[in-house]
Amino acid sequence: MLTMGVDIGSTASKAVIMEDGKRIIARQLVAVGTGTRGPSEVYKKILEEAGVNRSGIARIVATGYGRLTFAQADRELSEVSCHGKGMRFLCPRVCTVIDIGGQDAKALLLDDRGNLENFIMNDKCAAGTGRFLEAMSRVLDVQVEDMGRLSEKSQNPVSISSTCAVFAESEVISRLSSDEKVEDILAGIHASVAKKVSGLAARVGYRPQVAMSGGVAKNKGIVRAMEQELKCGILVPEDCQMAGAIGAALFAYQDMTRHESAADERAIYRKGEKDDE
User: Fold this and answer.
1) pLDDT of residue 263
2) How far apart are CA 101 and CA 103, in angstroms?
3) Does residue 104 sit in the same domain as residue 25?
4) Which of 154, 197, 211, 213 is within CB 3.0–4.6 Å of 94 for a Cys-Cys bond?
5) pTM exceeds cut of 0.85
6) How far apart are CA 221 and CA 229, in angstroms?
């Protein structure tokens, strides 16, 4: 049985197809999100990669910021539930999931069975999100994907004191004017984000193992700063950016197996009634 999960974020569209809820057979990412060509393009590409059409997919579940706009979905679920389920699939012993998305940051606490126990989200301020890092990369004239690598060269990280994205941008410009090194400013930016997001983890009551999901988790500078703030190691699976889509595909499979089980029970019940006659 093939199921599809589609995660439509504010900055990227992701999709996976899974077989029997156990194996990923196709994955696609398009670097634009809701309100763009991203959702339709990622949907087309994932079907092409898997070599199937819509009729070959038993169920599609959509998640993410733009989930309600994806007409092909059979069901929509929040990214909180899907990230938790996807990360437990990728890291079977994870208890705390930290996700830094384009528009928000969140910390999830999972119980021993992998169910969502508690979560907290920051979606009111750009600080500590992917959008904040994008804004900082433009000011520093550095590609987002290079930020982590460059920050590793820092010998004297600067302190970015402002917790507001707008004021932090002004502070970074001031640091540049003072001839501070770009790598030191980047290290300071990463520390600022880590401090903001680790506060969410502390409030949710984080416990090991801790893992990060989302595209920002690919930034080694952020991960290292988070480890320093939380004083523990952080797992970053290779498919960290696909966690939401994986969770959605798993929920789709769960839906289908429950339906099949219920149908089997009804068939057995009807057979029993006929035998009684």
Assistant:
1) 47
2) 6
3) no
4) 211
5) yes
6) 12
